Amino acid sequence: MGSEARVLGEVALVVDGAPVAVGGPAPRAVFAMLALEAGAVVSRDRLVDGLWGDRLPPNPDGNLQTHVSRLRRALAAAGAGQVVVTRPSGYCLDLAGRVDLHRFDAAARSGRAALAGGQPVEAVTRLRAALACWTGPPLGGVDEFPFAAPAIARLTEARLGVIEDLHDALLATGEGPALVAELRQVVDEHPLRERLRGQLVRALYHGGRQADALEELRRFAAHLDDELGLEPSPALRDLERAILTHEVPEPTHPGRSPDPGPPSHPGPPSDPGPVPPRGLPAALDSFVGRRSEIELIEARLADPTARLISLTGPGGSGKTRLAEEVARRWASTAGGRAIVVRLDPITDLAQIVTAIAGTLGLNASSTTDAIAHVLSDGRSLLVLDNCEHLLDGVDVIGDLLSAASQTTVLATSRVTLHLPGEHEITVPPLRLPPAEATGARAVSDATELFVDRARARTAEFDPEAADRTAIARLVRLLDGLPLAIELAAARTKVLSPAEMLERMRGPLDLVSDPGRRRVDRQQTLRATVRWSVDLLGDDLRHAFARLSTFAGRFDLDDAAAVIGDDLGVDPLDGRWADVEAHAESARVASEVDPDADLPAVARMNYRTDALMTSGDWEGAADTARAVLDLLGERISDLA
Fold it and tell me: What percent of the chain shows pLDDT beyond 90?
């Protein structure tokens, strides 16, 4: 009996072509969450969060177990067998390769490959097969659960991408004029998607409607300027010039049109490509910005000599989310598998190997050689997340890379790993709006992240009513740190951005997560900074406390004057890099925009705490005297 999980429509188990109910709403939601990552383990915490969000029942783990039991009974009654498997950290749906999402992904990859290979007719067939996997709006019947909104957004975006690819393939076959009506409808539904707009313009031009094509571009430019204060992309400007000079490329395969309409069979084409890799957590929210960082990391991943890439940066800068997004993109294009291993819960260095083995489905007692053997079975991208507290044990990374020649490691850490062959990429804060920008022009990656997360909390959140200028000031005050922005956005149910600005002049703990399921170090900004500082030794921690008096950058002479001789810490000491790296967790504004209007009250609060809680009262007095002496010297220099 053939069975397949369906999520690209009403959620169901399809047996021999007929959908079968899998229990009530909650068991069906569990089934959907497992199906979205079929073949991979989904933790109990994520399932609980996906079912109830912030509104937890009295016994969430017990309630989850009840729903899993009901789901198992429904699946067994449908003849699917025991496909929900219990693992130490959660549950796994043993239907890898038998999910409509997997067929969609495989057919989409195959279609894109055909298009890139100059086979648009074949691409049309395969891309239509991908779209035929959809039977309705995704996650039907469970779209009210907390996990659904970001997953629906991600799936919808993937479908739109395939539609755009299909239009490109049809344009290449000379079908442009026949596409105008369809493209007009899709553009009206998604007015800011420039690729769709460009496709409509090309379809108009190839239909002999040059004037209409130019008018379409001009209307779009005016719309962008009015709504966002932006200009069209260079690609659209180039297209306009090509239309004016009649240099728009002609279809590459005119007269070789594919059969019209979708295929009669909804399955994927022959040889659709590999099944999506295991080990990647599903994205629970949308990914915002970071285009230049992704391009840089992907360029390194394409370099065969760069097999260890570390993403470093202050706590809350978004290293984990960036690494996961890069891994997701890599897995969909490189034909390999990406595996994410969480190292933050680990305290014992010996558990690094255990954590990697567990993620790969191996026994906890597996050796490095056994892990390397599994990784050697094809190309692999191993993401090791949160390495900064395990620096004395990261030599195992080198051992794995030596034994598994087709594996690349992408590590996240607040500090450099100091391993041979390491390629370090610093993850900066999100791009901030210009200091002088107001209203609709005060838009940047940082403000868009705030708006996106605020809408996730409150669907009716209106950035215009909330005042984009206030949002811009708020994200500048938060230094563009994604964690800080998300924590602030979580407050939009009770506070407007302007009200947050007033309260942000208080301590760091104001920016906290009202939810209950973030890890402790991400509950508040203070906890994030404290995690970094606690990783320093006692002498370096005292040095950090004294250095935290500086609001911006400082040179070695300034550092030596403030630290003094009594701590025995030399700024030229090799360990100095640790102080510099961890200091970024409490001081990033000068890196983002030295001229921005940043009162830095949050940083001043932490500096005060650092000095007062260090117990170094005499040192604090010495620091104050040293700072005053430095100020005196600076004033004398200016006189």
Answer: 17
**DSSP state string for 395-413:** HHHHHHHHH-TTEEEEEEE
Q: Identify whether residues 17 and 155 lie together within a single domain.
A: yes
Least confidently predicted of 224-233, 280-289, 326-335: 280-289
**Among residues 222, 236, 233, 262, which one has the least CA distance to residue 131?**
262
391 token code pair: 């620096």
Q: Which residue has the higher pLDDT, 357 or 320?
A: 320
Output the pTM of the full model.
0.46
pLDDT at 281 over 50: yes
Q: How many CB atoms lie within 10 A of CB 322?
A: 23
CA dist., res. 470 & res. 463, Å (int)? 10
Q: What angle do CA 519, 322, 115 make, to 5 degrees?
A: 140
Angle at 409 between CA 403 and CA 411, to 5 degrees: 140
The reply to whether 186 and 128 lie within a common domain is: no
Residues 403 and 295 both lie in one domain: yes
β pairing state of 90-93 and 380-385? unpaired
Please check whether residues 144 and 39 belong to one and the same domain. Answer: yes
Q: What is the CATH number of the domain that holds 192?
A: 1.25.40.10
Return the minimum-mean-pLDDT range out of 2-16, 37-51, 235-249, 461-475.
Answer: 461-475
Same domain (yes/no): 620, 545: yes
Last residue of a domain, one of 127, 148, 172: 172
DSSP H helical segments within 58-193, as ranges?
60-77, 100-116, 120-131, 148-172, 176-189
Least confident segment among 364-368, 490-494, 618-622:
618-622
The boundaries of the domain holding residue 471 are: 439-504
pLDDT score at 18: 77
**Residues 518-548 pLDDT 10s:** 444 444 445 545 545 554 555 555 665 666 6
- Which whole number is the average pLDDT over 402-420? 87
Using pLDDT thresholds of 50, 70 and 90, give the confidence band for residue 595: very low
Residues facing 84 on adjacent strands: 93
Same domain, residue pair 216 and 356: no
Alpha-carbon distance of 422 to 324, in angstroms, equals 19
* Burial state string for 259-279 with b = 16 or more CB within 10 A and e = fewer than 16: eeeebeebebbeebbebbbbb
Q: How remote is the C-alpha of 120 from its chain's centroid?
A: 31
- Does residue 500 fall inside a structural domain? yes
Closest C-alpha to 479, from 397, 597, 575: 597
Residue 88 confidence (pLDDT) above 80: yes
On whether both 100 and 187 belong to a single domain, the answer is no
What confidence score (pLDDT) does residue 278 get? Answer: 39
Q: How far apart are CA 17 and CA 117, in angstroms?
A: 34
The values of phi and psi at residue 325, to 5°, are: -65, -45
More confident call, 168 vs 609? 168
d(CA 79, CA 298): 44
Side by side, the strands of the sheet bearing 422-426 are 337-342, 380-385, 407-413, 308-312, 422-426
CA angle 601, 452, 590 (to 5 degrees): 30
Contact call for residues 547 and 606 (beta carbons, < 8 A): no
Question: 284: buried, middle or exposed (CB in 10 Å: 19+, 13-18, 0-12)?
Answer: middle
172, 194, 212 - which closes a domain: 172
CATH number at residue 358: 3.40.50.300
Domain count along the chain? 5
